[in-house]
Amino acid sequence: MVFTGNQRSFILGLYQPTNGTGSFRELSETGYNLLNLPADTRLLDSAQKYGLKAWVTTGTLDTLKLEKSWKSIQKVVLSLKNHPALLAWEIADEPAYTWNSSQLRIVPKLMIATHDSISTLDPTHLIYLNHAPVNLVQTMQ
User: What is the pTM of this model?
Assistant: First the structure.
């Protein structure tokens, strides 16, 4: 359960991209209320029309391209942070996921820096992190 406005909501989300805005009505009628959408105002407008919320993936800061990656994240956050259909930001999908390895794909330091940077620009939206249970326990920790 999360609070959206002053109301508790049970989230039933869909991670896979939709095949166009025409399916938003069907998803809403089926009971979905959250979609993963690209940073596209038109798609968020269409989701809102059918009572759907969205989470948008920003990506994570890149140590090799720190300034460029920050500008990209900043552009997304500033362009959508006031959109009424936005529920949350996703900073990285499965940051520890590497098959048969205990090596991290994205180090925690970058995840924390990304989180803190986004929170500074947009303190009102949730920041979401998704991870499947596919790694070693010590890697996930």
Answer: 0.85
